[in-house]
Amino acid sequence: MRLIAVILTLQALGLLSNAYENVALHKPSWQSKQYLYHQGDSRTDANNAVDGLKTNLTSVGGQCVISGNDLRTATWWVNLTSILSIHHITIQYRTENEKWDPSNHYTGRFLGFYLYVSNTTYRNDGYLCFHDTRYTRATIPPVLNISCPVHGQYVIYYNERLEGVKYPADYSRHAFTELCEVEVYGCPTSGLFGPNCDLRCHTNCQEYCNIETGVCLGCKPGYVGQYCEHECSERRFGQNCEEFCGDCVDFEQCHHVNGKCQNGCERGFHGTRCTEICPIGFYDKNCKRKCSSNCLYSNRCDSKSGVCQGGCKPGWQGPLCDKDCNEKNGTNCNKRCGHCRGGAVCNHINGACQDGCAAGYKGEMCTKECDVGWYGLGCKQKCSAYCNDSGVCDHVTGSCKSGCKSGWQGVNCLEGGYSQFIRGMSQQPMVSNSQEGCDKVLNDDSGNQKDKTYDTLGSNTSRASEKDEKIEMSLQTA
Q: What's the CA gap between 415 and 387, in Å, rounded?
């Protein structure tokens, strides 16, 4: 039953043979080994299989291809001269004009053949349309119609009887190409289909479509579907939509044909297809932003976020190292400013006080207290010598920490108590300012003794005045 179905199919194909053109007629052909009755004899030439003649199916009739004897392989091909759309191929084998049955000597030579359509003369480059593995000498017909709806430039007939290979008993011992006519039916112009070759394949077909249905036998890059009517989607592009889009902005669909990102790249990528990582020193969308020069490793940051690799240089903070330390300084902003003059903020990188130090401090960063015995702005003022702990005072105000020596007072121990007492005494009223009065008073008492007392008091008052003058000079100097 299966064999009957095959025969009916082949007969049906025969009825369609007139709907398509024989595109092999009078086209160039070739065979691997020609049988020659004599030198230059054309009666067995390869072109006989495409001359359109098939009334004399003998070896001497000049209408058949006859290959040499004792061959292990035999090959014949016809060049259609361009890649054409093929519907089916008809083969008329040599019968020697005798009854075609198991008694015919040539049936065994036809068995086991291969039929290819290729774009080169090498059969394995092409498509295998048919390989006979089931026919016998009793069942193989002399004329075969083989459906092969493909595209190609060469139709190749091949048979073999390889040494060391066991073949069915019906097979001939050697290989032959005894073809009397090979007809290739299809459309004479590429890109057409239909029984009359008057319909055009979809423009997105990769040049060819099924000669019967118009279904594309391959799509141009960027398209899919039976008729290649759909553009690539789901972030794919290219041939058969097998390639993936790069990192386009917002991860949108790239161009379905060439993969180009229409609106630029996502963070960290650049290039036409957004497949290239940002070069060193750049980041963000389309790599348009430069990494911060304040990165610990200059201009090295994450290609997407711009976060500095390894942290920041001293004096800077934040993921992008674009903010200064703000009242701090150093690496990771881990150092506090010293005592800058007027409460000013120090340099965020090295901690230096630009306008000098506050009272009581010294050094470039104003973190050191004045040396012992000095105080005030620039540590230029000496502590009072009359501090109880001589020459030791508060480094900021100059106040004596342990109080004043005897006879001195005030915050800085610069006010002498004895001199003030003498001044107070000198302001008390006297009995008489004249020498005569004084003499009188002294005379009223014990005479010479009072003169001596007066002289001593006057002398002491004079010495106190001199001491006060020295103290005042010392204050002015301080």
A: 11
Query: How many other C-beta atoms are found inside a 10 Å radius of the C-beta of residue 190?
Result: 15
Which pTM was predicted?
A: 0.56
Residues 6+ away with beta carbon under 8 Å from 397: 359, 360, 375, 376, 411
pLDDT digits (tens, 9 = 90+) for 385-402: 889 887 889 999 999 988
Q: Tell me the per-residue pLDDT of 187-205, one tens digit each, with 9 for 90 and over.
A: 999 889 998 999 999 999 9
Asked if residue 461 has pLDDT above 60, the reply is no
d(CA 147, CA 86): 9
The strand pairing partners of 236, in sequence order, are 244
By mean pLDDT, which of 130-144, 180-194, 342-356, 376-390 is the weakest? 342-356
Determine how many CB atoms are found less than 10 A away from the CB of residue 383.
26
Mean per-residue pLDDT for 392-416?
89
What is the rounded distance in angstroms from the CA atom of residue 16 to the CA atom of residue 116? 21
146, 149, 152, 158: CA torsion to nearest 10: -20
Residue 378, CA atoms < 13 Å, CB-side half-sphere: 3
Q: Are 156 and 74 in contact (CB under 8 A)?
A: no
| Strands of 138-272, DSSP E | 143-147, 151-160, 179-187, 192-193, 199-200, 223-224, 230-231, 236-237, 243-244, 269-270
The burial of 128, by beta-carbon neighbours within 10 Å (0-12 exposed, 13-18 middle, 19 or more buried), is given as: middle
Report which DSSP code applies to 176.
-
